[in-house]
Amino acid sequence: MFTTALIEKVLRASGIRKEFAPGIISNVSIDSRSCRKNSFFFAFKGENVDGHDFIPALLEKGVLCAGEKDLPENDLYIKVPNVLDFLSALAKERRKLFKGTVFAITGSSGKTSTRQLTVSMLQLLSKSVHATSGNLNNHIGLPLVILNTPMNIDALVLEMGMNHAGEIRHLTEIADPDLSVITNIGTAHIGNFRSQDDLALAKLEIFEYSKGIVVADTGNEFIKKWVGSNRSKRKIVEYSSSDSEKIAPEFDYLEKYMVENLYTASVTVKASEGIIPDLGKVVTNASFPSMRGEIRKVENRTFVVDCYNANPGSMRSSIENFYEKYSRKSGSETYLILGSMFELGEFSKKMHEELVNYLKNLNLLKRVFLIGCEFEKTRPGFLNEKKVLFLGDITDIPEHLPKEGIFLLKGSRGNRMEKIFDLLEKIGGVD
């Protein structure tokens, strides 16, 4: 994906002189198992594994390696002061050589779906596309995606995640996106910030440090405020995610948030290409991650599975959509199985209580199952509510689950909500 000359250039900039035989690096990895000839291995020290331990064997295979430890001199080993800094610098230089369009997407939720929809649209416009895969959206993953991008690709679609202030700025400076998008600003990871205002500022770093087009949802109060202060200084494409209601009737089988993501992706692609393809074909062709709006059947039970992750905004949105779509219209008995929301810090109790208060008004639900200690703290508010059952974790639920009905399965990843299917398989089989 790049030449050894690029490595030499980045090393010289940091005061390290090392020369390599002319060649092409076709794969950059932090996993020694994926390395082959023409690979470049970066050794990171993790909690359980130290990548440096794999370097001697990789050198014997002719794999170029970078690390921070003193090792026997070898033409294929590069000792650097900081592996992450070197990885970032190399990705930044590789980005400068990329001639295609770079899209960068962040947000409290909807990042991955919007990324996949954007990829689908570009492909239907006959564009060759490389994109973030899996969870490679952080300070290590994003540089790896850039370094593994083929030279002749039309578009690169990057997803950016964050936990703390400054992370999005760092990723934006590496990616130098031509178009930047924030899907929304909610409360995901708010436990790492003093307030939602601080969290919003951290998300807005993608706009602040991007030199390209900003695709801004001015229906969001934080984004609207930023646009108001920067309208004369930047090329901004304004839209409102609430306008997704215009296309909602065509996609009534999709979750509300997915329709919003579809609309956001369409605005983004139109800002880049001037046109968008048929949205029905986009949805059909898109490859969505598992556990995001999946429908699974277990005998006479139907599960709407949306447990890839959860925060107050996405939790409320999923419940609203489920309630309108199934509780009001299906004629079947409906149930919620909700796992605690994590990474909310000092705001956790308040936000779980707010959700519980909202649930009290959903009188068409047959029963609500609340999983985990964070919901347990709200129990006093439900003392007289027979339709609510508090459980320690998802493993406690099979014996309480009705034999038929429609169930929403939603919660943060730490709850492992999907384990319910393994548990049910043991007692009744899963389709």
Can you give a write-up of this model?
The chain is α/β, with parallel strands linked by helices and 431 residues long. It has helices at 4-13, 55-60, 83-97, 111-124, 141-147, 167-175, 196-203, 205-208, 221-230, 256-273, 279-285, 312-327, 348-359, 373-376, 419-427; strands at 2-3, 24-25, 27-29, 39-42, 64-67, 77-79, 101-106, 129-131, 155-159, 179-182, 213-217, 236-239, 292-298, 300-306, 334-339, 367-371, 388-391, 404-410. The chain folds into 3 domains: 2-81, MurE/MurF, N-terminal domain (Udp-n-acetylmuramoylalanyl-d-glutamate--2,6- Diaminopimelate Ligase, Chain: A, domain 1), CATH 3.40.1390; 98-285, Mur-like, catalytic domain (UDP-N-acetylmuramoyl-L-alanine:D-glutamate ligase, 3-Layer(aba) Sandwich), CATH 3.40.1190; 292-427, Alpha-Beta Complex (Protein-Tyrosine Phosphatase, Chain A). 35% of the residues lie in helices and 19% in strands. The strands form 4 sheets. The protein has a 6-stranded parallel sheet with strand order 8-9-7-10-11-12, with helices on both faces. Strands 13-14-18-15-16-17 form a 6-stranded mixed sheet, with helices on both faces. The longest helix has 18 residues, at 256-273. The radius of gyration is 24 Å and the shape is globular. The model has no long low-confidence stretch (mean pLDDT 90).
